[in-house]
Design a protein that fits this description.
Helix content is about 25%, strand content about 30%. By secondary structure, it is α+β, with helices and mostly antiparallel strands.
């Protein structure tokens, strides 16, 4: 019997080694894949119920938008299918979202559709926006480990009653131990006029800039930062390029902390993220720290991956101004049953 037992030991050992090699190669393969980071303004993703704590209840069955359960589920199903298309059926590392009402709509979208298989977790705080719309952050626990979250209030010293969306901040570790700081923004709109509201966006930009500066001071170097959102300004507007000092890599000065990856529509696959009459504009952007662009090790930005996603299903023919326009859920009070008035944007990160 002894020769048999001697023979079994090396066979088991070889099997163990082979098993370890397979596991290691699979882990390496998974780790070396892109980490996709995306942002999308969902355009008024409300639940269909009356919220007695809020004045604004237009997105309800008996409200002005006649937002029924069937319309809610149609919107939810549209969005999950679009998310799968944008992510190419792989989990995002991080997905930032604007214009969602509450945790209910997020649970319905990410826990009651095929997206539930992607191991997403939700970061959400109830804000004090007048209409009750918030920003949120979704992340995949297979790709990132959450360390800390915070809702950053935008305070107007001259108006104690000022209300707008928070800036959502989250701090993560990636699988190799790098720290990543993520911010999701939805800055004040241009409703009432661009010039009349420019100071509101400058205030949001300054609030974000102060937080970025504090991170740089704390680390005594430029940490890895990802800023995404609907800024209601273009990359050329003062709030972005002056207050935040986020410009293209070519135009940024040597002391700049941030790089705007969405300054040139010709390199993004499409000319803008929303359309006003004849003109497309880039309001939805992803901005990163220089340490994600020019670093030679760890998690870095994948060159030329910045993209405005423009699947055909997100458009319809524009009879008024030519070309195409976005296939929206509503235009004013008129229901169309589409997706959003914004296009999603994304970048890919890779390990070096």
């Amino acid at each position: 019997m002894r020769p048999l037992s001697i023979l079994k030991v090396p066979l088991l050992f070889l099997f163990f080694i082979e098993f370890q090699i397979v596991i290691s190669s699979e882990a390496y393969s998974q780790e070396s894949k892109n980490l996709r980071v995306a942002f999308w303004n969902f355009e008024n993703f409300f639940d269909p119920f009356v919220d007695s704590t809020r004045v604004y209840n237009e997105f309800t069955e008996h409200g002005s938008q006649h937002w029924t359960k069937s319309r809610f589920y149609k919107k939810r199903n549209n969005m999950y299918k679009a998310i799968l298309a944008i992510s190419e059926n792989e989990p995002f590392a991080v997905l930032g979202i604007a214009e969602i009402e509450n945790r209910y709509v997020l649970n319905s979208l990410f826990n009651q559709t095929p997206l539930k298989t992607h191991n997403y977790r939700i970061i959400h705080y109830e804000g004090n926006d007048n209409r009750g719309i918030d920003v949120t952050m979704i992340y995949c626990i297979d790709k990132l480990q959450l360390i800390y979250t915070e809702a950053i209030k935008i305070v107007n010293p001259q108006n104690p009653n000022y209300r707008t969306r928070d800036i959502l901040y989250a701090k993560f570790y990636d699988k190799r131990g790098d720290t990543i700081h993520c911010f999701v923004n939805h800055w004040p709109s241009r409703y009432g006029g661009e010039r009349e509201t420019v100071k509101k966006r400058a205030l949001a930009a300054n609030t974000l800039k102060n937080k970025i500066d504090s991170l740089v001071f704390l680390h005594q170097t430029i940490p890895k930062i990802i800023i995404m959102g609907d800024f209601n300004d273009t990359p050329e507007d003062p709030s972005i390029c002056e207050v935040l000092n986020a410009k293209s890599f070519e135009k940024s000065d040597k002391n700049a902390v941030l790089v705007n990856l969405f300054t040139d529509g010709r390199k993004l696959g499409f000319e803008g993220t929303l359309k006003h009459q004849y003109n497309w504009q880039i309001f939805d952007q992803i901005i990163v720290s220089k340490s994600l662009v020019d670093n030679e090790k760890g998690l870095v930005y994948k060159q030329n991956s910045a993209t405005i996603f423009h699947g055909d299903f997100l458009f319809e023919k524009d009879e008024s101004y030519g070309g195409v326009k976005l296939f929206r859920t509503y235009v004013g009070p008129k229901y169309f049953g589409g997706y959003s008035d914004h296009l999603p944007v994304y970048i890919d990160l890779i390990f070096k």
